[in-house]
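FYI - complex with MF3, inputs then prediction.
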Amino acid sequence: MSVTIKSEAEIELMRESGRLLSIMHEELHKALKPGMSTLDIDRLGEKIIRDFGCIPNFKNYNGYPASICVSVNDEVVHGIPSKHRILQEGDIVSLDAGLIYKGYHSDAARTWGIGEISKEAKRLIDVTRESFFEGMKFVKEGNHLHDISAAIQNYVESHGYSVVRDLVGHGIGTHLHEDPQIPNYKRRGRGLKLMAGMTLAIEPMVNEGGYEVEWLDDDWTVVTADGSLSAHYENTVLVTADGFELLTLPGYN
Ligand code: MF3
Ligand code: CO
């Protein structure tokens, strides 16, 4: 599948898709508390999405069994919600979700602390979010994709952390995953030239320790190989002539 440029009418639908997803994330953040199961989060998120009249795009995607990926502590991404997994004070939890509004996908992830968390965990969450915004400094028509990747990697590594390499960001639109792939680390060359109207899901996944990851036997849950903490931050981003618009963080623009 090739890279698509969205028309103004499509961008309007992507904006609404992203706006609704941002509201869902705010609602989930408010609901988080110790004692909650990761399945409670999935049920609440799916209800909010369906109450908007939208479709949770993760559900049944390649067989993924839930609407919200809930990844706790050393889980990097794609944690499967379970009624047996109870959130404890001090945990960090990454929530990754998407929805379809009138055929248009949005995708965003946030990492939150449960109650009081350690200074180290808070710093990991902050650096992960900040690395996304470092990447954003390079999003603009005429710039190149790998400029974004390099900015994310440099920022993360300058704080002593590492970026996950086995998973990448992606284009998004009428499909959850479109071209191009968007690594969070340097690759050869400058990569694709950005054009206004591209919509991209940019999503640094940052480990406190090494970048290596493993898959659990459920074939979904990705964990850090060394057991260190991991955080994730993602927005659906529109490339414009002079910069960008964060479709899943509308207050920012
Ligand atoms: N948010 C993930 C991504 O950015 C998608 C999750 S895969 C799913 O690629 F199967 F859980 F949907
Ligand atoms: Co994504």
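Helices lie at 8-31, 38-51, 119-136, 145-158. The mean pLDDT is 98.
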